[in-house]
Amino acid sequence: MSQSGAHLEQAFEAEIEAHLLAHGWCQGANTSYDHELALDTEELFTFVGATQLDAWEKLVGRHGGDQTTAQGKFKARLADEIGRRGVIDVLRRGITDLGVKLDLAYFRPAHGLTPELEERYQANRCTVTRQLRYAPTHDGELDLALFVNGLPVATAELKNHLSGQTVEHAKKQYREDRSPKDLLLSGKRAVAHFAVDPALVFMTTRLQGASTRFLPFNRGTADGGAGNPPSPTGHRTAYLWEQVWQRDNWLDLLRRFIHVEPGTGKGTTGAVIFPRYHQWDAVRRLVGDARDRGAGHSYLVQHSAGSGKSNTIAWAAHQLSNVHDSDDRKVFDKVVVITDRVVLDRQLQDTIFQFDHKPGVVAKIDKNSAQLADALAGGAAQVIITTLQKFPVVLRAGAELQTGRYAVVIDEAHSSQTGEAAKDLKQVLGASAEEQLEAAAAQDAAAGAGADAEDELAAAVAARGRQENLSFFAFTATPKARTLELFGAPDDGGNYAPFHLYSMKQAIEEGFILDVLKGYTTYGSYWKIASAAAQDPDVDKAKAAAQLARFVSLHPTNLAQKAEVIVEHFRAHTRRKIGGHAKAMVVTRSRLHAVRYKLAVDAYIAEKGYSDVRTLVAFSGA
After folding, report:
1. pLDDT tens digit string along 256-308?
2. Integer Cα distance of 56 and 88 in angstroms
3. How far apart are the C-alpha atoms of 555 and 538, rounded to whole Å?
4. Helix crossing, 433-448 with 419-428: angle to 10°?
5. Which pLDDT does position 364 carry in this prediction?
6. Could you tell me the CA-to-CA distances from 400 to 346, 377, 394 in Å, in that order?
7. 27 pairs with which residues across the strands?
8. 283-288: long-range contacts at Cβ-Cβ below 8 A with a sequence spacing of 24 or more?
C-alpha cells in the first residue's frame, strides 16, 4: 500500500477510535499488552482493583503477600481458565483462585432496584487499541482490537475505498496474514473478527487460513437487497461503531447473545454463535418496544429462510422473559413459545442455561392442556414451549389470568401442522415405492384438510380480540395477507408491514439460500438448450441433432419422459461443473409429486445403468 493509501486507512481507523473514546470507551496501549498471554494486564488489574479490592487483597495474602507474585500467578490462572472455558464464559462467570472468587465483568442488571449493581456495571473498562502488536514471535499488527477489562473479545481490519482497497482485501488479510496459531486469533481469546470498509462489514468467529468463512454483517438496502443504505451523516458502515460497538450494546451482546456450543473433547469449547446483524437488530427492537409500551401489542417478524430464526427466537424469548419497564416492573410474567420444531426446545434450554445457569427456566409441555395451564399459573418456568394445538389454552389463560402478562412467540405458524406427517414420510422413504407414494399422498391430504395453521392462529386471535395482558411475536418467512393485518403494523398508506424484515432477496444475495428460479428452465424451452449442443465442440454433432429431434417431439405428459429429460440434461450440461460436484434441483407442486418424480428418475437411472448420478428428496416445512 502506498504512503497516501496508508494515511487514508489510518484516518478511517482514527475516526472510529475517536467515536468510541467519545462514547465511554478507553484507549488501550501496546505497552500494557502481554503478548505471551494475549491479555491487557494493566486494564485487567485496574478493573480488579477498582471493583474487588477486598477480594484481591485476600488473594494476595494467599499467594504470600507479594503483589507482583500474586499478579503473575493470577494472570496465569486466568489464561488457563480462558483456554479451558473460553473468554465469554469467563467474562460471565468469573474465576476462582485459591478459593477466592473474582469477577471479570459486571453486566447491566435487568432492573434498577439495586444501585450497587449499576455502579459495578459502570466500572467495566471497554478499551480499543489501535495497531496492536499481538504476537511475541513477529511484528504483525491488527488495525483495531477490542477488550473488556483486559480480556480481548474482538479484532477488526479496516480498509478504505479511497486507498484502492475494500473489505475483500481485509478478508484476504485475515486469511493469509493472520494466523490462527497466534493465541489472540486462535479461538481461545477474541470471539469475533470484523472485516470493514466504509460500505460493507463482514465477520467471522473462526480463522482457518484460506478456509475462513466470513458472514455478511450488513443492514440491508432500502429495496431489501444485500449491503447497506447510504448514510446522510457519514459512512454506510457507521452503525458498526455507533450502534453495535456502542458500550452498553456491546456489553449486552457479550452477555445475552453470544452462544458457545459444547466442545467435542474434554476441556474444549465448540463453535461460537455470533448474531448476524438482522438477528441482533430484531431482538433489540422487539425488547425495546416491549419495554417502552408494555404488554398488549402484536409484532410480525418477517425473516426469510436462511435467516437463523431458531436462534433469533431463542434470544428473543430469553430477553423478553427478563425485560423490565421504566418503573422496574417486569413486563411479562411468562413467555410462551408456540412451535413444532423439536430442535428449538433443546436450543432454547441450552442457550438460556448459558445465560442464567438456572435449571427449570424453560419448560416443555409434552403431555396435555392441564400441564400447560399449570405451567402458566405456576411460578417456576419463565419460558414455556408448547404446540399449535394447545394455543387456545394460552388465549383462554390470558383472558382468565388477568393478573399475569404473557408474551406469545409464534414460530413459523404456517408450517406447524405438517411436522408429524413429514416425520412419518421420512421414516418410509427407504421403504417400497408403494409405501412412499401412500405416505406422500397421506401427507398432502393432511396438509390440505381443514384450515391452514396460519389461518387457524389468525382466527383464534381475532376471535378474542386484543387482550391487554397478551403480546404476540409472530415469526414467519412468508406471511399471508391476514397474518400481516393481524400481527403487522399499518403504514401511512394504510398497508400493513412487518415490524422487522429480513427479505428473501437479501438472503439470496448474501448467499444463505439459493434462488431456485435463477436456473429455471421450462420443458417447453428445453429444445433451445438441446439445440445449443449442436454448437458445442465437446458434443458429437450427429448425436446432438438426434437428441434435438427426439426431445422436440416429446410432450410432457409422461413422468418417464420428463425423468429422461432431467437426467440427460444434467449429465450433458451440469454434472461436470463445480469440479464435478454440481447439483440440479427439481421443484414440484407437492410432496406426492416429489416422490413420484424421485421414483421416475430412480427408475430411469437404473434402466440406463448410470452410476454417476443419484437423487435426494427433501420437503420444505418439514
Report:
1. 999 888 766 665 567 899 999 999 999 999 999 999 999 999 999 999 999 99
2. 22
3. 28
4. 170
5. 81
6. 30, 10, 10
7. 128
8. 283/257, 283/312, 283/315, 283/316, 283/319, 284/249, 285/499, 285/500, 286/316, 286/320, 286/473, 286/499, 286/500, 287/316, 287/319, 287/320, 287/323
